[in-house]
């Protein structure tokens, strides 16, 4: 089997690239193969609001077949290995697929099993997570059933997708606990393997004020390593002293550690940390020039979000087309990413920044302020932009 362009992963990045390529080069119709074993496609940014009970889980899910752009071919199989020297990928059923150009868009791997006892407790014993379609409803269940005590929200020391998501659900929970009149019986804690609340100073300043106002207790440099579900104990490792700290919980929202997918880590495409080793500006692979990486699996030193992909996809497409026309690869991505940090039902700080870690804002007002309008944009407008704009190669 041979295709001009093979795209590994039909998530946000893979579909955006395929749709845009076909829009800009109709002659590629029938020559683009998308490989993805998943039958469903998810708009994951909605899961924060699903966990908070503001949106139904089903609104985030569509059939994968419905997002495959016309002119692209979808093979519902996982890629098992890469052989970039021979321009070849192997699928899980043993098919060899040859390509002229390869785009790797396989997302990030959630390492649930790196926390002892987590899998066994997930969805019960007060343990929940927004980081999976299967478990996201358990977050809302926990919020509704919470009667007081310790509500813990964790973040790992690893890179995660959407760096703000571990705290967004905590702010919604705090708001909900106030509405349901249990907040005065609760201790809300953010226990994080990171060293601060947010990487960009402007937004960190705003968030620290939110935390103070909401009377949330923070513990940094604490990595969750074990859940003892039936005892309702969470065990953290203090990252400097390596001491184990046990904290009892009544509910705990867990964001597990994440890493590059194993099949990428073990491949010739990976850098030392396991990510697809691409140039941070052109998104072209640093060793195999006919390979590009996009999205969560790429080695880009910026926050991993769908918003970032919206700016990466045009770069990948322009550079791919340049290569096909034997032109130099010149289009550059500046590291733009965005994190709409929900701070309650009806309030949001819209963080936008780039490789300089300085704000790179869209609107002519101070986005470091909590705003109702920005919350509405996240809830109502961004899903429409995603399904009808980004996935259609229009924006
Ligand atoms: P994905 O969209 O995850 O797609 C990867 C695809 O690769 C999947 O379809 C998968 O099946 C496929 N795949 C995996 N392995 C293989 C294989 N071996 N072979 C072939 N295919 C494979 N982003 C924002 O911009 N704003 C937000 O507010 C926001 N909030 C978030 C909140 C939560 C709770 C979560 C979980 C994410 C959030 N994100 C947010 C992040 C955003 O969803 C991701 O950054 C984005 O989806 C990444 O796109 P991707 O294409 O890299 O990966």
TrEMBL record:
Assigned keywords, A-Z: Oxidoreductase
Alphabetical list of Pfam families matching this protein: Pyr_redox_2
Keyword Electron transport recorded: no
Enzyme Commission designation: 1.-.-.-
Transmembrane segments annotated in the record for this chain: none
Domain of life: Bacteria
An example molecular function term from Gene Ontology annotations: oxidoreductase activity
Domain called FAD/NAD(P)-binding: residue spans: 3-302
InterPro entries assigned: FAD/NAD-bd_sf, FAD/NAD-binding_dom, Sulphide_quinone_reductase
PANTHER family on file: SULFIDE:QUINONE OXIDOREDUCTASE (PTHR10632), SULFIDE:QUINONE OXIDOREDUCTASE, MITOCHONDRIAL (PTHR10632:SF2)
Protein name (database record): FAD/NAD(P)-binding oxidoreductase
């Amino acid at each position: 089997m041979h295709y001009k362009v093979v795209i590994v992963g039909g998530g946000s990045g893979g579909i955006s690239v395929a749709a845009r390529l076909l829009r800009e080069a109709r002659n590629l119709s029938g020559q683009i193969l998308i490989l993805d074993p998943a039958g469903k496609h998810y708009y994951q940014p909605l899961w924060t609001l699903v966990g908070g009970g503001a949106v139904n889980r089903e609104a985030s899910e569509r059939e994968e077949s419905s997002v495959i752009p016309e002119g692209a071919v979808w093979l519902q199989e996982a890629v098992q290995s890469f052989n970039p020297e021979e321009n070849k990928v192997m699928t899980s059923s043993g098919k060899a697929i040859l390509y002229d150009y390869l785009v790797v868009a396989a997302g990030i791997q959630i390492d649930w099993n790196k926390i002892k006892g987590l899998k066994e407790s997930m969805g019960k014993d007060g343990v929940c997570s927004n980081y999976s379609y299967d478990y996201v409803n358990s977050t809302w269940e926990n919020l509704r059933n919470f009667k007081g005590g310790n509500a813990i929200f964790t973040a790992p020391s690893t890179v995660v997708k959407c760096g703000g998501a571990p705290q967004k659900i905590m702010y919604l929970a705090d708001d909900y606990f106030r509405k349901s009149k249990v907040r005065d019986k609760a201790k809300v804690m953010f226990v994080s393997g990171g060293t601060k609340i947010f990487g960009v100073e402007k937004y960190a300043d705003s968030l620290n004020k939110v935390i103070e106002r909401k009377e949330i207790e923070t513990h940094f440099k604490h990595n969750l390593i074990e859940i003892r579900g039936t005892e309702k104990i969470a065990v953290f490792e203090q990252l400097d002293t390596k001491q184990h700290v046990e904290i009892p919980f009544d509910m705990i929202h867990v964001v597990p550690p994440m890493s590059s997918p194993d099949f990428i880590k073990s491949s010739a495409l990976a850098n030392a940390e396991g990510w697809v080793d691409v140039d941070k500006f052109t998104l072209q692979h640093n060793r195999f020039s006919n390979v590009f990486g996009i999205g969560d699996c790429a080695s880009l030193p910026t926050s991993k979000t769908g918003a970032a992909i919206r700016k990466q996809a045009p770069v990948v497409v322009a550079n791919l087309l340049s290569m096909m026309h034997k032109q130099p690869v010149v289009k550059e991505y500046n590291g733009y990413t965005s994190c709409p940090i929900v701070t309650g039902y009806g309030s949001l700080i819209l963080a936008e920044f780039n490789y300089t870690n300085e704000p790179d804002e869209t609107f002519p007002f101070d986005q470091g302020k909590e705003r109702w309008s920005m919350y509405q944009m996240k809830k109502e407008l961004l899903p429409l932009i995603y399904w009808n704009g980004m996935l259609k190669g229009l924006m």
